[in-house]
Structures
1.
Amino acid sequence: MTYRLAACAEMLFLELPFEERVRRIHDRGFLVEIWDWSSKDLAALAATGAEFSSMTGYLRGDLTTDEGRAELIATARESLRAAEVIDSPRLNLHGTGLGEGGLPVVPRESVDGDDWIRAADTLRELAALGEETGRTFVLENLNLAVDHPGTPFARAADTLALVRAVDRPGMRLNLDLYHAQIGEGNLVSLVTEALPWIGEIQVADVPGRCEPGTGEIRYEAVAAALRRLGYEGVIGMEAWASGDPDAALDAFAAAFGEGPGADGPGAGSGASA
């Protein structure tokens, strides 16, 4: 096995202070994902000894408007400086800034050809920033039907098209299979097509956005496909726990080939997660 497993501290062990959530996930042997870094004590998070997988790579902005592009690039620069504190290798982006409840700050029902050109140009600038600092921006697909209505460039097909057009090592996909299942399905074909441009994969089950095994997605088949394809990146569980968070982590690990009796997440890859 070559991939590594991560878990999102924003969605697990919710009764604990944030630093303790990070520590619990780290102690289980997983990499740690966080979202908005501006609300966190990054030095305290670094002091936990956790290894971080990704964090949000901007605070405001969008890919297409002049004001939004300027804000996105400026706050991406801030995010790169923040990433140094916790040594986060990947910084996550969306088609536009998301507000309360994951809704877009400025919703868009459609985009035109000029929007696509401006979005690709914006991503090229961000890719260059990532390459200058040795980090990678990742563009995440979302879903419009349940969680993020009105978000431009939300579909996996859209994010893949943009990252393909940019085609630079500083810009890759954060391929979220929970969102893709709601919006498009056909997950094994999707990961096969997207493989050269994937920077990270995120998972949760449908419906409910809880750990693998609680819904309709057969993640064991997805894991088998990723092993067959030789995927060597990170798979992150960005999911709520349906019950006990430790049991949710166990189910996630088991779905991706790390069942009871294994040495821990990432066993067999020479990795700790």
2.
Amino acid sequence: MSNNLPKVAWIGLGIMGSPMSENLIKAGYSVTGYTLEQDKIDRLVAAGGTGASSIADAVEDADVVITMVPASPQVEAIAYGPDGILENAKRGALLVDMSSITPQTSVDLAKNAAEKGIRVLDAPVSGGEAGAIEAVLSIMVGGEQADFDAAKPLLEALGKTIVLCGPHGSGQTVKAANQLIVAVNIQACAEAVVFLEKSGVDLTAALDVLNGGLAGSTVLTRKKDNFLKRDFAPGFRIDLHHKDMGIVTDAARNVGAALPVGAVVAQLVASLRAQGDGGLDHSALLRSVERLSGSQV
């Protein structure tokens, strides 16, 4: 292992964090990980990483700290307080938060970290579990150019499209726009699926030809099998998309942008969650269209 690579601490080893951290190990980085479930830490160790007993233990020697947790409250919980990242990471460390959170949380984190001499990038991702495993994620980054340049080689082990979008919080804003487009796209696909099936068309054939034309999309390519098989094992849970639709509607309201269709889809995501489908993949928006169309789901 080449010793000149930065030492990495990884906090948050979930559906995304586990495969991403393993891709860094494959790229030759030394990775020390911490997460709430011991079996996830064991998985990292089996892949060649090092387990930590706490956040403080994970970050104390790290040159780069990467975080991948569900939402703003978790980012604040791991960053702040006596046992958090800011109190325990060394001065000059680079904190790369890859969670999807509110732009304001990212702005505040960068400001508070700067007081400790810690540099921050917000670097949320798109591409889901498959993109994480295949290391083809799209990574939208907010922060300083110099910090982005320093992080880029490491991010290249995790994703394919890596873009600095502007100052702190900009990565989160672009991610929010991403989640808006994805939800509306899944909803449109779901409506088409129900329409096609009720019309008695061969659904596999229909989706293949649609995906070859202007209606084609990465969403349809990735979610086609979910629709065909009614397989809603989560790559990205409705619960998390619900959180993200809250972020985008709130942020849009703050800047005075109207999201008429986004607001409707946000309500459909919320209703799916209220019906107990929050743990399913976001392609389960299909279930909501089926219910509205009179099917027993």
3.
Amino acid sequence: MMHFPDEILALAQTIVTDFTAKGWMVATAESCTGGLIAGALTEIPGSSAVVDRGFVTYTNTAKMEMLGVQEQTLAQFGAVSKETALQMVHGALFRSRADFAVAVTGVAGPGGGSAEKPVGLVHLAAKARNGTLIHREMRYGDIGRDNVRLATLKTALEMLVALGR
């Protein structure tokens, strides 16, 4: 068993319990978290009723091939952008049987940041198949790679909880 903080496991448990009761499934599209969202959800017994699939799309090529992110979007706005996060979440829904999807793309650090896109900048998008969409731009700051990834994981799970309400 991996060790996730209790508050992360509590959020994952809420999603698994609530979505199981409603017959809903989830897909994840992850860049900077590298599969942590799917990992946290699948720590919960019974999660197979809820987790449809996860896409780990660390490179731009993977984002394009697996999620249908447009090359023009990546060229114009970059991988870490609202536009890319929205195309990632749309692609995850379109390429799965899930009722809900969440997507994250960001700069976890310690390097890779810039003045425009500093370490700790993460774009998250969560979408329901009925069209309801949430986007969040988070600026966690240069708090360390693990902390950026855990904060992103927590925010992503909170967004799924909110969509499921």
4.
Amino acid sequence: MRVLVVEDEQLLADAVATGLRREAMAVDVVYDGGAALERIGVNDYDVVVLDRDLPVVHGDDVCRQIVGLGMPTRVLMLTAAGDVSDRVEGLELGADDYLPKPFAFSELTARVRALGRRTTTALPPVLERSGIKLDPNRREVFRDGAEVHLAPKEFAVLEVLMRSEGSVVSAEQLLEKAWDENTDPFTNVVRVTVMTLRRKLGEPPVIVTVPGSGYRI
């Protein structure tokens, strides 16, 4: 899942990004609304975690632009104002969800994951294919009943492949969904991660390489 965190309190923004990365999400961070619009114009995000009171371009205007462009991106709006009227106003702007500050990180994560599921075709909360069971919420993976321990990027790649339901996923798509914008697109990080993932999942291999196209399960 690719997430953009837009928050002018830099310590909070960086803490949220670090926590979401530990949950196997690819996260970019910006600190004002103008930078947010630049990133949205370049990258495809599943979810934008958007502070409402932003400098340069207000969060309300960022939300309006996302909605106006008809993007599948979901918006989780954050604000220090917790009144019902503020929440209603934020939702009326087109935000998909609303979370007042201060918030529990576990709740933020759960809301981001729930919104991320809404950007694609509805799938069961626990994904199963070829003897693999993947639970995104619990961050657990089992193969034929035996638990498999994966690093965050390995988990993210496996989740993207499982959600494709047998379709081929290119290396570029994996890079876009599982890594943030600071990753060099010319590295072999995708190939190395897939190799390690294959080894951890065991025999017989379930990740198939489609020459010139990508990977599928």
